[in-house]
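I hope you will forgive my troubling you with a question about protein structure. Could you please explain, in whatever detail you think fit, how the C-alpha cells follow from the sequence? Thank you for your consideration; the sequence and its C-alpha cells are set out here.
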Amino acid sequence: DGRFIINGKGGLISPKKVRTDGDWSNAAFFLAAGAIGGAFAYWLGFKAGKNPYDLRIAVGHDSRLSAGPLTEALLKGMTMFGAECYDAGLASTPAMFMSTVLPQLDFDGAVMITASHLPWNRNGFKFFTKEGGLGKPDIKAILEKASSYADDLTPDSVRVFFVDDGSELMD
C-alpha cells in the first residue's frame, strides 16, 4: 500500500512491498525504490548546496537476492535527477560510509542496500553523507519527497515505523 518501514536508529528504509518472498516482479516495489532514490538525490542536492547534476553517489549492497533489483531501481531514481551514480557492488555498511569521507573517493552521499539483522526479504536502504547516517528528520524529509513522485505513494499513505521500539515517526 505504498508504506515504508524504518528499522532502528540508523534508519534502514524499506519499501513495505519489499516483503515479496522472492517475487521481485512487483511493480510497486520498484516504484517505491525508484522514488526513494530520486528523493535522496533531491534531498542530498539541497543539503549539499549542489545541483543534483553535480552530485556523486555510491551504492553498495549486501549478498541478499533482492540486491540486484533494488540497486537497479534505486540507481534509476537517482540518475533521473542527474546524479552521477556508482555501483560499488558487494560492500559493507562501513565501507559505504567511508566512501563519503575518504578524499580519494569523495562521494557526496552513499547508500547501502541491506536488511541488516532482518530476514532476507526485508532489504532496504541506509543513507550516508560525510556527517554519517541520516537521522529521523532527514529520513522523514526523503520519504515525504518520495511520496510525491508516485501516484500511489501519497503523503497520507506513507507511514514510518521504528521496528525496534515501535514508535511512529509520522502518520
Q: What stands out?
A: DSSP finds four helices and nine strands in the chain. The mean pLDDT is 75. The helical segments are 27-48, 67-79, 93-101, 136-147.
